[in-house]
Amino acid sequence: PNLIYTSVPFILNPGCDLVECQEPNNPALYYANHVIGDDRIHMIYSTLDELTISIFQTVKTCVPIFNYSALFSHNYTGAIQFPDTKPSNSFSLVLRRLIQFNDKNDDGFIDPEDKTITSYFLTNITATNVTFRNNNTNQPSFQLPLNSLNGSLTVDIMYPGETVRESKFPKLRTTPKSYFLNIAFQANKFSLPKTRFAFEFYLILPGIDGSKISSSKFIDDQYTP
User: Fold this and answer.
1) What residues does 97 pair with on adjacent strands?
2) Where does the pLDDT of residue 139 fall: very low under 50, low under 70, confident under 90, or very high at 90 and above?
3) CA gap 186, 20 in Å, rounded
């Protein structure tokens, strides 16, 4: 199995007594939470299908219920319940694949005629070995080694817990209830001089009329593909 490193004590398949949760080479669900004032932030990393990171904000007394029979059957609708409360400020990020391509024009765009494009799908991750890194932080960090690229993928959930301005981006002001994701990718195995990597991902946001999916060609700065 892959070895996944986490920096805070995530619980592996909490409350699950199914055989699938006990076998070493199955996908898994990792859960952690953090209380901020009257709220509880629930953090879930799932390798049950494509690599998915979910964050839910509820009242601090809320404890989630996981339907593992549904989860392992890929019936995800309603498989995670938050009794007697409706989560707010919540989202799920599905990291579907990494795309390696030759950015010969150095413009951040993938040439449809590029014959060197290679896709690395973030699926079939049988990660049941967890190593906790004691780096004295409350900021959850989830690191997945990518052996095929001699690299790694790291996802940090950031919530400063206070009102501050980000040092690198002064216009970004956070409050005690603010949280966001940092995604870092490192690869050491490529040969083309202008190799670039892109993500294909889905951001799912719950709304009044149900979850909605939107698309974008860029992540944050109108240059990063």
Assistant:
1) 121, 200
2) low
3) 31
In a 13 Å sphere around the CA of 218, the CA atoms on its Cβ side amount to 8
Confidence of residue 146 (pLDDT cuts 50, 70, 90): confident
Tokens of 75: 């019936």
- Residue 208 makes CB contacts below 8 A (sequence gap 6+) with none
Sign of the dihedral through C-alpha 88, 219, 32, 25: positive
The span from the CA of 174 to the CA of 179, in Å, is 8
Q: Which residue has the tokens 């494009």?
A: 117
pTM value is 0.78
CB 152 within 8 A of CB 172: no
Which range has highest mean pLDDT (66-80, 103-117, 180-194)? 66-80
| Domain ranges for the chain | 3-213
Q: Check if the beta carbon of residue 1 is closer than 8 Å to that of residue 129.
A: yes
